[in-house]
Design brief:
Blueprint: E1 2-6, H1 11-22, E2 26-31, E3 46-49, H2 55-62, E4 68-71, H3 78-83, H4 85-106, E5 110-116, H5 139-158, E6 161-167, E7 169-171, H6 189-197, E8 204-207, E9 219-220, E10 222-224, H7 225-242, E11 246-250, E12 256-257, H8 258-269, E13 275-278, H9 293-299, H10 308-319
Parallel strand pairs: 1-2, 1-4, 2-3, 4-5, 5-6, 6-11, 7-10, 8-13
Antiparallel strand pairs: 9-12
Helix pairs in contact: 1-7, 2-4, 4-5, 6-8, 6-10, 8-10
Bound molecules: UDP-4-deoxy-4-formamido-beta-L-arabinopyranose.
UDP-4-deoxy-4-formamido-beta-L-arabinopyranose is lined by residues 76, 78, 116-118, 167, 169, 188-189, 192, 204-207, 218, 220, 258, 281, 284.
């Protein structure tokens, strides 16, 4: 199939492109390289440098006999979304709506959409399944949920079928060492731990050690980016076969605490990582775990790369040359 990967030069996007090419799909990457990296582009995939806010550039990209769109172009920093909601409204809503409109105009009928655990807000029960109420507590999560609602309407009104993939905590790097672009100014736990292991920052601030968890620190469901990538392939197959819109959680149902991540990284890298307990971060649930049962049943998908060792090992492989 010919797939337009919007945001294909980003961290998750580049891993998705690698999997698509391995499965012999024809790929066109559309990316403005604002956070995506040139280094993440593949020689055997077409590349169009363009912005989702630029409809004049997006439409011709869509009018190339595209069979399906994979949409990963979004701003994703939760804190920033609360300080600068207009930026998130523009990119994550206006840009995504431009994409749906360009699909309508170009008669492209399938989209795989990057959504997030952030649509759920504070969990009411665990593990969180897709029937869990959605009640985002940050603007970023709101934009993802809002787009899912738009996609439901575009399905009803325009026959565009979607699969929305609600990622839990994305981590890890391509084990083959092909995708290795590092995110600029990372905001998430594991890259922060890695930077500390490399000596690029003094220490890791652990937000809260008084949670009701096994070691007092927050527990999350960390999912390897190669597992996320394979879920996109499953989602394409699913849309081909069933032509039915669906929403899936992507996680493992296994929890890892902040301290476990830190101490295991210390063990695997052999580097001393200083840390300090800091106050809780606003909006952090103590535990967040996905039920991946629906994805297993309908997509035949399962995480196979997401052991703690593999997550840390694959990430260290791309960070270790940064060590000072
Ligand atoms: C993980 C844990 C922190 C940094 C976010 C978004 C979510 C999704 C994934 C995109 C938490 C703790 C972190 C640090 C720490 N994003 N932590 N010190 O918040 O679980 O999820 O990314 O879709 O919507 O909210 O991820 O990596 O920021 O934090 O102690 O310096 O690590 O408190 O418990 P989070 P994270």
């Amino acid at each position: 199939m010919k797939i337009l990967v919007i945001g294909g030069a980003g961290y998750i996007g580049s891993h998705v492109v690698k999997s698509l090419l391995a499965a012999k799909h024809e790929v066109c990457v559309y990316d403005n390289l604002s956070t995506g990296l040139e280094q993440n582009l593949f020689a055997n995939a077409q590349f169009i440098r363009g912005d989702i806010l630029d409809y004049g550039s997006l439409l011709p990209a869509m009018k190339q006999n595209i069979d399906a769109v994979i949409f990963l172009a979004a701003k994703k920093a939760v804190g920033e979304s609360m300080e600068n909601p207009e930026k998130y409204a523009n990119n994550n809503l206006v840009g995504a709506l431009n994409t749906l409109n360009a699909m309508t105009e170009a008669s492209v009928k399938k989209i795989i959409f990057s959504s997030s655990a952030a649509v759920y807000g504070m969990p009411e029960y665990l593990p969180v399944d897709e029937k869990h109420p959605t009640s985002p507590i940050n603007f970023y999560g709101f934009t993802k949920l809002d787009m899912e609602n738009y996609m439901k309407w575009y399905d009803t009104l325009k026959g565009i079928k979607f699969v929305s993939l609600r990622y839990f905590n994305a981590v890890g790097y391509d084990e083959d060492g092909i995708v290795k672009g590092l995110e600029n100014k990372p905001q998430n736990l594991l890259p922060i731990i890695m930077e500390a292991a490399c000596g690029l920052r003094d220490k890791v601030m652990v937000f809260g050690n008084d949670y009701d968890t096994r070691d007092g620190t927050c527990i999350r469901d960390y999912i390897h980016v190669s597992d996320l990538a394979s879920a996109h392939l499953c989602a394409i197959d699913y849309l081909q076969k069933s032509n039915e819109s669906q929403i899936f959680n992507l996680g493992t149902e296994k929890g890892i605490s902040v301290l476990e991540m830190l101490l295991k990284t210390q063990e695997i890298t052999g580097k001393e990582i200083s840390y300090e307990f800091a106050p809780r971060r606003a909006g952090d649930p103590a535990v967040l775990l996905a039920s991946p049962l629906k994805a297993k049943e309908l997509l035949g998908w399962q995480a196979t790369h997401s052991s703690l060792e593999n997550i840390i090992d694959s990430t260290w492989k791309v960070y270790k040359h940064m060590a000072i």
